[in-house]
Design a protein that fits this description.
By secondary structure, the chain is of the alpha/beta class. The protein has 15 helices and 11 strands. The C terminus is likely disordered.
Length: 359
């Protein structure tokens, strides 16, 4: 300790966590747990406190956090990084948090529920003030973990009555598409979607479409929906193109893709097989990605405002932290009608006007 003070007096050295550990006779990880409010024995905590006091380490970032109980760090858990929607979500989160002095720590669950839970634990141990989770699905384990932490956790993308959440209305989005395609005269659809373990995209979006597409036609033998399960990625949708084409040959007139990315994979498959869209089969998506406007044919889709979702999720977290009012208002859904749907009804203008009245 004397040698340390001599070096400090000559302004030659700044103390490190490893030196704190050496002086206290503990491991570096033990010091990290102490600084991040993790569990260590009282005897070790007392030794670390003494060293921090003697060395003046309290002037650094972690010691300020110990005093202020605030790190100005927000943890964000994402299902994947290479996603258009994730990029827009992060933009919205940043619009709210950065002007208020917060920085984000990003972790990816790589589409694994177990890694999602591990990421939440890891961020909490690193001393963030709160956590935003773009969740794959909120399980009982998620609920138990969120309740056990002493910092707020806000989920987006999924919902559960026992946690704080904010998401798009996927059921309403599905209904918008189902009502539109019914108005456009389609009776046999293929829904190309993800597994229902994803409660929002895989479950709610599909159920909304089914309910609206079948509404008033449940007893009509000519009305039918086939389901083809795929992944979220472009390649998975492309690889299931043959399954969709088989349904087309059996009479399906429209492929309803659970995301724009899935639709883009299917469009590529159809292009290579010389299946004309929309002449041979119509295709729709969900998301409203920018690229969906420039592909050929341009994709008819339900547009989501992911930027707004990110902003409102960040506002909700700040509300939980006590620094901002709860976000107000819903999140709009817009059908963007382009070139990828063929009108099989009696009149295009009447069908479109009737659908817009529903929105």
């Amino acid at each position: 300790m004397k040698d340390y003070h001599e070096r400090m007096a000559r302004n030659e050295h700044k103390v490190t966590i490893q030196e704190i550990a050496d002086m206290a006779g503990v491991s570096k990880s033990t010091v990290s747990r102490y600084l991040n409010q993790g569990y260590i024995s009282e005897e070790k905590a007392a030794r670390i406190r003494d060293v921090i006091h003697e060395t003046g380490y309290k002037a650094n970032f972690f010691a300020k956090r110990l005093k202020m109980k605030e790190s100005k760090l927000i943890g964000v858990v994402l299902p994947r990084i290479d996603s258009v929607t994730v990029g827009k979500l992060l933009t919205g989160i940043g619009r709210v948090l950065e002007p208020r002095g917060y920085q984000g720590l990003l972790l990816s669950s790589q589409l694994s529920s177990d890694k999602e839970l591990a990421s939440i634990r890891s961020l909490a141990q690193q001393g963030v003030d709160g956590i935003i989770v773009d969740s794959l699905g909120i399980t009982d384990r998620h609920v138990a973990l969120a309740k056990a932490l002493d910092i707020p956790v806000v989920f987006t993308g999924q919902q559960h009555p026992d946690v704080t959440w904010l998401k798009l209305d996927d059921y309403a989005a599905g209904r918008l598409m189902g009502a539109y395609l019914q108005q456009m005269g389609h009776a046999h659809a293929v829904f190309l979607g993800v597994n229902e373990r994803d409660q929002a995209v895989g479950g709610e979006r599909k159920r909304g479409f089914l309910d609206a597409f079948l509404a008033g036609r449940e007893e009509d033998a000519g009305v039918r929906i086939d389901f083809v399960e795929t992944g979220f990625d472009f390649l998975s949708a492309y690889n299931h193109g043959a399954d969709v084409e088989e349904r087309k040959d059996a009479g399906a007139t429209v492929a309803v893709c659970a995301t724009d990315n899935i639709a883009l994979g299917l469009l590529r498959y159809f292009h290579e097989r010389r299946v004309r869209v929309p002449e041979d089969m119509s295709v729709t998506g969900f998301g409203g990605y920018d690229v969906s406007a420039v592909v050929y044919p341009a994709l008819t889709t339900i547009q989501f405002d992911y930027d707004l979702v990110g902003m409102k999720t960040a506002q909700m977290l700040l509300h939980r932290l006590g620094s901002e009012d709860a976000p107000q208002g819903g999140m709009p859904l817009h059908l963007i009608e382009r070139e990828s749907v063929k009108n099989l009804g009696s009149g295009e203008t009447a069908a479109i006007e009737s659908f817009h009245a529903l929105t």
